[in-house]
DNA sequence: AACATTCCCAACCGCCTCCAA
DNA sequence: CTTGGAGGCGGTTGGGAATGT
């Protein structure tokens, strides 16, 4: 890649970056990540953009804890496929390989701890719930019907995605457990101060955009430029002499600019 | 209340595969 | 056929939040 690695941003994504990425993925599709990285003006690698999209921004994602059913399925599939996380994830709609990997890691760690405790002879109070089950757990008759009642489990996440809306509110930045925290954390963003534009709102607007204003997903290699019908004044110049030069100088747009463009 | 430990998960890294040139 | 770039994948890490002492 011809990208200047020193200029590349790393670390947690800001709300504003999310916003930009969502916009460009919506426009160009979720395949040409290097292109999107270049075009969007995000100082991120294509890989980083892809990861952010796949693991976090994709609207098809189910948020929240895995349901007992999903947990059982993960265990089952893992015994079948091993650490082929993406393969397992494909069978769990709305779940990412990363999520499953993380779950598995936690699961096996808990399991190891329980074993350790057991072998050291001290009975564990948490043995009553299924975290003590190992990979054997997929044959545990109680597993499918009984939700995990780990005292650490976050009650409001336990629906395994039903609370989507609330959780989406909390998705503004990394690591939100609830919308309250989201707000406090988001307020820390210096560059995203133009307003708290939640992902939920972004998607709402993008849906509108889809319906009546924009032709989404064009092939950047065959098309000259997308035909945007929303406030074109926002786009001051498109250059496309080569892939690298292609840029929208006026980005990043503020949320207000963006949404006002949408509602015109 | 303060500190320590554990949990959780987003994001990075490096390797692998695929495919166009 | 070879090669280089892009995307995909699995492993790992870092840090914030939750929980325990």
UniProtKB/TrEMBL annotation:
SUPFAM superfamilies: Homeodomain-like (SSF46689)
Biased composition (Low complexity): 119-130
Domain HTH myb-type positions: 5-57, 58-112
The entry's keywords: DNA-binding, Nucleus, Repeat, Transcription, Transcription regulation
Annotated Gene3D superfamilies: Homeodomain-like
Annotated Pfam families: Myb_DNA-binding (PF00249)
Cited CDD domains: SANT (cd00167)
GO cellular component: nucleus
Myb-like domain residues: 5-57, 58-108
Subcellular localization(s) per the UniProt record: Nucleus
Ranges for region Disordered: 103-130
Principal place of residence: nucleus
GO MF: DNA-binding transcription factor activity; sequence-specific DNA binding
Signal peptide: none
Protein role: Transcription factor.
Protein name: Myb domain protein 48
